[in-house]
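The pair is set out directly below:
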Amino acid sequence: MPVAHQPKPKGAGGFTLIELLVALAAMAVMAGLSWRGIDGMVRAQAQLQQRADLVLTLQAGLTQWGSDLDAMMQLPQTRTLDWDGRGLRIVRRSTVQPGDGLLVVAWTRRNVNGTDQWLRWQSAPQFSRGDLQIAWERAAQWAQNPGDAEKKDEVRIAGLEQWQIFYFRGNAWTNPLSSDNASSTPVQAGAPPVAADLVLPDGVRVVLTLPAGAGISGVITRDWVRPALGRVN
């Protein structure tokens, strides 16, 4: 006798082709949305990390700026601080070990590979007045029109659109290139007058304009005051 086929229980069949396609499409949409979310999180994290790195680099540069000024020397009949409109040069003592000689450091802004950068240059330790003068002139050359030899000793600090320098003298912030700073000024009562450009100012102000779209932007003002003077109002 022929065997009768039992009917399949209702609901026990597999997915139809249309149902599988719909499920696959839904999974693809969910996977795409998830990837976009993860990609957005990765991008945001990368931007935050880039911004943090830029902030740390700029902070390190400003710390070095203050250290250079803190270690600045005042030598008889010798210019140890100079701003020529392009670069700032400083003669400073070495803080590694006493007797390690004097250093000439310089700061400037220059276009490097299409981007304006805040740069720092440092000479080797100098132990004679003649060698110190040569390093001083090399620093000026580096700030104006550096060659490959001078560029080897430079360090990039941060992107910089423009910068300004001011000196604090006579209870006021003034342009170092103004005529007020070129007049003769006595070092102390009873002392012979000395050219003002050989007398260290009571303070130095740097105003940095950071480029837009570089992670961090805006204007930063940093005032340095000679340690023996305390605070400048």
